[in-house]
């Protein structure tokens, strides 16, 4: 089992067995506001940030798989996945919602 903690622009993933960080993901330039383990893509983590981007991380290789462009003038505040189809909704601080 894993525990994910976002500290400003850094994501730390802890093993609950050892209570120590096993993975550190750096790359956002603003505070990370939410992370998600997508059901349709095991061993992957998606993060959203006030830097107005989302990132897709490969947890096995511990590296960035995809980085979006800056998506809007407002930061990204929330993230949700569609449980049936491999897509996600990203919510912005200005109330805008976009699907990917």
From TrEMBL:
- Does this UniProt record's set of keywords contain Iron-sulfur? no
Coiled-coil parts of chain:
none
Q: Its domain of life?
A: Eukaryota
Signal peptide positions (record) = none
Indicate whether rRNA processing appears among the record's keywords: no
> Which Gene3D superfamilies does this entry report, sorted A to Z?
YVTN repeat-like/Quinoprotein amine dehydrogenase
- What keyword terms does UniProt attach to this protein? WD repeat
Q: Where are the WD repeats?
A: 25-59
One Pfam family it belongs to:
WD40
The identity of this protein, by name, is: Guanine nucleotide-binding protein subunit beta-like protein
Source organism (scientific name) = Eutreptiella gymnastica
């Amino acid at each position: 089992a894993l525990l994910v903690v976002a500290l400003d622009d850094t994501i730390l993933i802890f093993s609950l067995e050892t209570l120590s960080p096993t993975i550190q993901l750096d790359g956002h330039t603003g505070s990370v506001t939410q992370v998600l383990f997508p059901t349709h893509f095991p061993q992957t983590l998606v993060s959203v940030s006030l830097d107005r981007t989302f990132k897709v991380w490969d947890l096995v290789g511990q590296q960035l798989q995809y980085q979006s462009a800056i998506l809007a003038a407002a930061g990204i505040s929330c993230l949700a996945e569609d449980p049936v189809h491999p897509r996600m909704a990203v919510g912005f601080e200005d109330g805008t919602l976009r699907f990917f």
